[in-house]
Write a structure and sequence with these properties.
The structure holds two protein chains of two kinds. By secondary structure, chain A is of the alpha/beta class. In chain A, 48% of the residues lie in helices and 17% in strands. Chain A has one domain: P-loop containing nucleotide triphosphate hydrolases (Rossmann fold, 3-Layer(aba) Sandwich). Chain A has an eight-stranded mixed sheet with strand order 3-4-2-5-1-6-7-8, sandwiched between helices. Chain B is an alpha/beta fold. Chain B has two domains: 2-44; 123-337, Rossmann fold (3-Layer(aba) Sandwich). Chain B is built from 13 helices and 13 strands. Chain B has helices at 11-22, 76-79, 86-99, 103-109, 114-121, 145-158, 176-187, 197-205, 225-238, 252-265, 282-291, 313-322, 348-358, and strands at 2-8, 27-34, 37-44, 123-124, 135-138, 165-168, 190-193, 213-216, 241-247, 269-273, 294-295, 297-299, 308-310. An eight-stranded parallel sheet of chain B has the order 4-11-10-9-5-8-6-7, sandwiched between helices. In chain B, strands 1-3-2 form a three-stranded antiparallel sheet, with helices on one face. In chain B, helix 10 (252-265) links the parallel strand 9 and strand 10. Chain B is elongated and about 115 Å long. Classes of the chains: A alpha/beta, B alpha/beta. At the A-B interface, helix 1, helix 7, helix 8, helix 9 and helix 10 of A face strand 1, strand 2, strand 7, helix 8 and helix 9 of B. Chain A: Residues 16-230 form the CobQ/CobB/MinD/ParA nucleotide binding domain. Chain A: It holds the Pfam family CbiA. Chain A: Keywords: ATP-binding, Nucleotide-binding. Chain A: This is AAA family ATPase.
Chain lengths: 271, 363
């Protein structure tokens, strides 16, 4: 039996890739904040900096990791050895390697190795968040296609819309019938965010014949910028902010109940 | 997709602008009233469908399977190339016939000193080290998998290792869990009950890094597709090394087929059991030869503390000649008889080591 077949026995909905196409839409920040929100729901969360060329999760978190994904891929460390605990956030982090051409130009086989690692991580974490890099490079596409859920982050800027659309279009090719969802970030308000989502959803329905559900709208919030500058976490520093509430709602609203209940079922079977 | 956002005093004007910008195939994606009129967003799909990603070639897992057993040393007696006399060969032929060893295999084993031919025909070695991968014990019902699991766990702890994780996937046999529970408590080992491969994997995930893992499975019929599929899934999910636990005394043909079937499912080592209560060993020898399984260690007692005994060509040759599980009697006229290989008895794990030493009477 192949590893893929074996992995199919594991709960789905566990690996969530966060992509955007366009850079600067708040993808990494959302990945971090979503990781914290999910951990607050009682889940064991691993945040993987899968921005293979310009990893910066560690920068936003103020970490100085000596261990990273590259060390795992080169066999120097096991996945568990390379993971750092972010105590404040309550989740684990696997750092990338910023500026590493080796990671950015990974072969399909090496990307499959990452995918296998993520599948193997089912043994240790309930949810794995993959913070994908911007752009549409094949390694990023492969990682997006390997995830159980692809969250596509967009803003109301036309360039963001077109790039998010491109991501969704490629995902439809790479993983027909895959679970892709929208998150609108930096929205003026909920209504504006919904309109932005509707625009993208209409394009996907018209051109791709694909219905893309909206998972959440995160309102623009100056306190987000404050936390990024301070290399801290929004849910810790500004727990009552609009953006914090929106991400918590996003985490709670993600339809992971099935996967979580399956995980819980498995864990109950373990003495 | 091309996107264009336009502003106009009226919607028809906005639509006209979009058509001018994007062409007649433009699609209105959204519109809304804004100060001074309307804002409309149009889109046009121009790109051809994307090419699918090229498939990745399979690559071997880091580290790969490391199943190579430690090669058993060639018995010193065999290295001397002793030529057995015709009387001795006749006796060995009769002995192999007594054990029910198939003719072809018997002929091969009689082609030279029995110890040497056993060494050349079969593979001997220890079970894989615990720690790098889980060790999964599989086999037909009633083979002694649970007892073997407990013996290995005890040996690991008494040998100075951290208490292992014992994963019990045998949810069918009444009492299997209870059997393991008592031993696990005694050894301060972690015991997990797993009803399916995913649960087993979850349990393994909770162990300390590098910790030893033993997986006890329910007795299964490898010729049953559903049961075989379940075992395959368990092995693939846990990435375990697999040892086939098989009782001595099975019909050689049946044992050979069982061995081959379990080999096909991933077994690499053979742990014969009931050595203390079975006279004929043709079954396990046939299975090891037919399936190229490593004859590793054997069970010769129902007592956990007696552990497993190492199997060697010397010991096996002596046991075949003896034609009985009863230990050799010490002869008053033969003061050296105490040095002959014998079945392990009451000295537990210490005895395990002693048997290893005694496996070669020349030492």
């Amino acid at each position: 039996m192949s590893d893929a077949a074996a992995a199919s026995l594991l709960p789905s909905g566990r690996i969530i890739a966060v992509a955007s196409g366009k850079g600067g839409v708040g993808k990494t920040w959302l990945s971090i904040t979503l990781s914290q929100a999910l951990s607050r729901l009682g889940l064991q969360v691993l945040l993987v900096d899968a921005d293979l060329g310009l990893a910066n999760v560690d920068v936003q978190l103020g970490l100085q990791p000596e261990r990273d994904l590259h060390a795992v891929l080169t066999g120097k460390l096991t996945l568990r050895q390379a993971v750092s605990r972010h105590a404040e956030g309550g989740f684990d982090v696997l750092a990338g390697r910023s500026g590493s051409g080796a990671l950015a130009a990974m072969s399909p086989e090496r990307v499959e190795q990452v995918n296998t690692l993520m599948r193997d991580s089912a043994a240790f974490w309930d949810v794995v968040i993959l913070d994908l890099g911007a752009g549409l490079a094949p390694p990023t596409r492969r990682l997006a296609a390997s995830a159980d859920i692809l969250l596509v982050v967009a803003t109301d800027e036309p360039t963001s819309l077109t790039d998010a659309y491109a991501v969704l279009k490629l995902h439809a090719t790479d993983k027909p019938g895959g679970d892709a969802r929208l998150v609108v970030n930096q929205a003026t308000d909920a209504a504006q965010g919904s309109r932005t989502a509707a625009t993208l959803q209409r394009a996907c329905a018209t051109f791709l014949g694909r219905e893309i559900p909206l998972s959440g709208v995160v309102r623009r919030d100056e306190r987000v910028r404050d936390t990024i500058r301070r290399q801290t976490l929004l849910l810790t520093r500004h727990p009552n902010s609009n953006a914090a509430a929106d991400v918590e709602a996003l985490a709670a609203g993600l339809r992971l109940q099935t996967a979580f209940s399956m995980l819980s079922q498995s864990k109950r079977e373990v003495v | 997709m091309r996107v264009r956002v336009v502003h106009a005093r009226t919607m028809p004007e906005a639509m006209r602008m979009l058509t001018e910008e994007l062409g007649p195939n433009a699609v209105l994606l959204s519109s809304r009233r804004v100060a001074g009129g309307f804002q409309a967003t149009g889109g046009l799909e121009t790109d051809l469908p994307e090419e699918p990603l090229s498939p990745a070639l399979p690559i071997s897992a880091p580290g790969g399977f490391d199943l190579g057993p430690t090669e058993a040393e060639l018995p010193r007696r065999a290295m001397r190339e002793l030529s057995a006399g015709p009387g001795q060969k006749d006796g060995e032929a009769a002995a192999l016939g007594f054990h029910g060893i198939p003719e072809e295999l018997r002929t091969r084993l009689l082609g030279g000193p029995l110890e040497a031919m056993l060494s050349a025909t079969l593979r001997f070695g220890r079970l894989p080290e615990l720690g790098s991968r889980p060790l999964l014990l599989a086999g037909p019902p009633g083979a002694g998998k649970t007892l073997t699991t407990m013996k290995l766990a005890a040996r690991h702890v008494l040998g100075g290792g951290e208490p292992p994780l014992i994963v019990n996937t045998d949810q069918q046999r009444p009492g299997a869990a209870e059997q393991l529970t008592g031993v696990a408590e005694l050894l301060k080992a972690h015991l997990a009950q797993a009803r399916n491969p995913a649960a087993a994997l979850q349990a393994i995930a909770l162990r300390p890094p590098g910790g030893a893992v033993l997986i006890d499975t329910s007795g299964m019929d490898p010729f049953d597709a559903d049961q075989a599929r379940l075992l395959l899934t368990l092995i693939a999910t846990t990435r375990a090394n697999v040892a086939l636990v098989m009782p001595c005394g099975l019909d050689p043909a049946e044992a050979s087929e069982l061995g081959r079937a379990f080999r096909a499912l991933g077994a690499t080592h053979l742990v014969p059991t009931r050595l203390e209560a079975t006279r004929r060993l043709g079954g396990i020898i046939s299975a090891a030869a037919a399936a190229d399984l490593v004859l590793s260690e054997g069970g010769a007692s129902n007592l956990i503390t007696e552990g497993l005994m190492a199997l060697s060509p010397d010991w096996l040759a002596e046991r075949l000649r003896r034609q009985t599980h009863a230990p050799p009697r010490a002869s008053p006229s033969s003061p050296t008889s105490a040095a002959k290989p014998e079945e392990p008895r009451q000295n537990g794990l210490l005895r395990f080591e002693a048997v290893t030493q005694n496996g070669d009477p020349d030492r």
